[in-house]
Amino acid sequence: MTTSERSKAMVAAAHRRHEETRRKAIDVLRRLDADGEPVSFVAVARTAGIHEPGSIEMRTFVPRSSGSRSPPSAGTPRVPFAERASASSLRQELGALRTREAELRNENRLLREALAANTAKSAPSAHQPWVSTVDHVIDMSTT
Question: Domain of 49?
Fold first, then answer.
């Protein structure tokens, strides 16, 4: 085996080790996330059995957020990634809730109008002062 062949074999072996380490780290990331466990570079490396955390560029498959990621509070359970809602589904749900709110507001308005109309019909008129309410019927024969 020539030097060039040995170099190619070593590069190929290093590439295989890198891919295997990367696969282990990704599997551990998914498992930690599904279990709701805190995810850190040290936790991933330790759980995956990666002795050299610097040997893999974990930042290539860790999601980036626009803000800083703070750990969840002790009383708040983490929701596994598979159970989290996407922005699209949240927008769709918000639209459905707004539609339902408009329907309920309209129904409420109609009920208020019907109540007002019903109350106006049953209220005593100015030319019938002796009619008070249904609950207070006065028996005039006993007085």
Answer: 3-64+77-119
